[in-house]
Write a structure and sequence with these properties.
about 0% strand, single chain, about 75% helix, 2 helices, mainly alpha, about 55 residues
């Protein structure tokens, strides 16, 4: 279960709602777009994670 009080989670939910409400996507299409975003950003997020982890050492 997600923490609905977490600002980052709220941003993701708001973005999905915007895709449905503003862009006219179906919920299924919004989740397909989310999957595409996940694939396109995974490498960059792994790099950020590694850099953050190294900086904490």
């Amino acid at each position: 279960m997600i923490d609905i009080n977490n600002h980052h989670n709220q941003l993701i939910v708001a973005a999905l709602a915007g895709m449905v409400e503003d862009e006219g996507l179906t919920p299924r299409e919004a989740f397909i777009r989310l999957d595409e975003i996940k694939k396109d950003t995974y490498s960059a997020l792994m790099e950020i994670h590694s850099e953050t982890k190294e900086a904490k050492r």
